[in-house]
Input
Amino acid sequence: MRAYFSRRYRLSASHRLHSDALTDEQNRATYGKCNNPFGHGHNYIVEVTAGGQVDAETGMVCNLVDLDGCVHKLVIERFDHTNLNLDPMFQKLVPTTENLTIEIFQILKEAFRPAEIVRVRVEETSNNFFEYSGEA
Ligand SMILES: Nc1nc2c(c(=O)[nH]1)N=C([C@H](O)[C@H](O)COP(=O)(O)OP(=O)(O)OP(=O)(O)O)CN2
Ligand SMILES: [Zn+2]
Output
């Protein structure tokens, strides 16, 4: 039987929304207050969903301890209390939460083996949330 297991993590980071492909005026018009040169911060909530067969012996899709280890090592340690604009990934990409969500999905999809990472959902504010499931 295939089942899905989701777990929630928290990370705090700052960012400034600014695209090198746009003029300063276009950046201000596109991103508004989020283009402020001083940046601003969020307490992101990251939800990770893993899917797989429920193991007959353990009764689990995967052990949350294993998922925690992977998420902490590859996501929390990398992004928590950082300026996302300084991360190598965001030298070419604007650090919107769409792009952060996709990046986290790809990191975990590649690295986590006990089950399949099928979705990442990130809440940026209580009103804004984003998800990615691997579609092109
Ligand atoms: N498509 C996207 N649009 C926006 C993103 C994004 O990542 N993708 N991000 C932002 C900002 O980062 C911004 O900080 C969001 O804040 P705000 O507009 O203030 O959001 P809320 O209204 O939900 O939060 P309040 O706490 O109620 O102000 C903007 N757009
Ligand atoms: Zn923001």
